[in-house]
Amino acid sequence: MKWLIFILVIIAIVLFIAFRLLIRSVNPERFTTIDSIENEKKQGTLKGYDELIKRDYIVKSFDGYELHATYIPNDSKKIVIITHGHTATKWSSVKYVMLFRKLGYGAVIYDNRGHGDNIRTYMTLGLKESKDLIAVIEDTKKKLGNDLFIGLHGESMGSAINNMALKYKPKIKFLISDCGYADFMKMGKAYARSEYRLFGGIVNISNWMCKLHYKFDLSDVKPIDFISDNEIPICFIHGDQDTLINKINAETMFKENLGYKEIHIFEGAKHAESYLKDPDKYYEIVNDFVKKVEKNNREY
């Protein structure tokens, strides 16, 4: 009897931990817009942004879900659409808006599904969100014209969303992929082992719960699956001290990608810290990459 109770307790503990891991991934606490603004102010990334002309609006996605977006013009047909990371808001994209302005680009930033000013809902880590991005791209063309020169920038989950959107063959010119995951299940298992000393298989239990409760399969969240036949130029960026999403994710996708590609590893940078670690180097990398793409401008 004692052994049975012991086993049941162990099972209950494992199920509880698996559920907590799932919630942290799919439905965690997120930054409010106000908290996000304050966080960016502390980092000094909003300097000059208040003075810029900008327009807030709503983009309706494939299923009618409404995405809060902001357009920041720059007297140019060159536009970068920036996708933020897990639990963040569009305000974390402002630093990249300012970077791309120096390159002559206007920008569109938006709150991911379930984030920021959007209606609260769970996230699918790239499955629905990649369709949302396609809706933002199409909406941008509709509003500003089909002759736009559009690039994408994504950070962390935003990078994974961008890479998964390649499935839909968007008419874009380039993609900056900053610290994204190649395969969510593999990344989750590696993180569970390294950070919590848990057996990787617990993520399989989390996925079982995800399929049961949220009705989607975490094993389908594999951006690398849409890289292998890609011909759009991609610049991969990652920090070598990233313990959340190891740099091997960028290295693996870099090897898999068939089109023009670059990879840049920032020494000493933790997760999503490459720009903050060395903004000048980050600017130089993006500037050189974008100029190469612009020089070889063609339909991808």
CATH architecture of the largest domain: 3-Layer(aba) Sandwich
CATH topology assignment of the largest domain: Rossmann fold
Strand tally, please? 8
Net shape: globular
- The number of distinct structural domains comes to 2
Q: What would the average pLDDT be, to the nearest integer? A: 93
Query: Uncertain segments of ≥5 residues (pLDDT<50)?
Result: none
**CATH superfamily placement of the largest domain:** Alpha/Beta hydrolase fold, catalytic domain
Strand order in the sheet with the most strands = 1-2-4-3-5-6-7-8
Task: Report the total helices.
Answer: 10
User: Helix/strand-derived class?
Assistant: alpha/beta
Distance between the termini: 66 Å
Q: What Rg do the Cα atoms give?
A: 20 Å
Order of helices and strands: HHEEEHEHEHEHHEHEHH
Strand % is 15-25%
Query: Which CATH first-tier class of the largest domain would you pick?
Result: Alpha Beta
Largest sheet composition: 8 strands, mixed
Portion in helices:
40-55%
